[in-house]
């Protein structure tokens, strides 16, 4: 179970202001390419699950992770989702990006689960989006500040994975209020927004 605080920033100005405030705590910036898949018979989506390939690009050693996410729930700015992830060879990932049908033959524990538990015997691509993620070590937690690039617009979000989400959310909200950072609780996952085809109002 992945438990994350998710807070949305209203615009690029708030995003830039936050990056500036957090700059002393910066660890790394990731360039992610996220792409999603379902079974050819919608076996995953019909049971509130999705398969994701995430590529880490613009780095010395490109990486790729395959991830099964299921039963996502967001409430009061806290996301809970069942997640199973493993690393795969990026060249295999890119081959599956070109031809989703190749996923069926990838030697992967996660894909084995997808075939066995969901009965997927073929795959179709759903598309995806890119994210620039700035990562910070701040007050004993890891903050991830995302700039999400959809075809229909950009979204700005702050995430923090933690087993004490309410406590961490309070810390982040206090920090935002003290520094005049506008924010709201995220109501939808990035994937749900992608599938809706428009930014939340």
Major sheet details: 8 strands, antiparallel, barrel
The sequence of SSEs as H and E is EHEEEEHHEEEHEH
N-to-C terminal Cα separation, in Å?
29 Å
Main structural class = alpha+beta
As a percent range, the share of helical residues equals 25-40%
Give the radius of gyration: 17 Å
Q: What is the approximate shape?
A: globular
User: Average pLDDT value?
Assistant: 96
Beta-strand share of residues: over 45%
Number of strands: 9
Total helices: the number is 5
Unreliable runs = none
Largest sheet strand order:
1-5-4-3-2-6-7-8
Domain CYTH: 1-198
Pfam families: CYTH
Protein name: Triphosphate tunel metalloenzyme 3-like
GO molecular function, one term: pyrophosphatase activity
Structure, explained:
This protein has 201 residues and is of the alpha+beta class. It has helices at residues 12-22, 90-98, 109-118, 165-178, 190-196; strands at residues 2-9, 26-39, 49-57, 63-75, 78-88, 123-138, 141-150, 153-161, 184-185. The chain has an eight-stranded antiparallel barrel, surrounded by five helices. The two termini are 29 Å apart. 26% of the residues are buried. The model has no long low-confidence stretch (mean pLDDT 96).
């Amino acid at each position: 179970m992945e438990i994350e605080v998710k807070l949305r920033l209203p615009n690029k100005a708030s995003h830039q202001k936050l990056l500036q405030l957090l700059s002393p705590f910066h660890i790394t910036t990731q360039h992610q390419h996220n792409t999603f898949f379902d079974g050819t018979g919608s076996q995953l989506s019909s049971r509130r699950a999705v398969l994701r390939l995430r590529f880490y690009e613009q780095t010395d050693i490109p990486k790729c992770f395959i991830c099964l996410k299921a039963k996502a729930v967001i409430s009061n700015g806290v996301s809970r989702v069942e997640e199973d992830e493993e690393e795969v060879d990026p060249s295999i990932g890119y081959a599956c990006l070109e031809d989703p049908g190749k996923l069926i033959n990838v030697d992967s524990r996660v894909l084995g689960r997808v075939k066995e538990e969901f009965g997927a015997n073929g795959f179709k691509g759903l598309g995806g989006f890119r994210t620039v993620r700035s990562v910070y070590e701040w007050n004993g937690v890891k903050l991830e500040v995302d700039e999400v690039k959809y075809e229909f617009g950009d979204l700005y979000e702050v995430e923090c994975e933690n087993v004490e989400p309410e406590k961490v959310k309070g810390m982040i909200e206090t920090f935002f209020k003290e520094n005049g950072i506008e924010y709201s609780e995220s109501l939808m996952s990035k994937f749900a927004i992608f599938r809706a085809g428009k930014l939340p109002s």
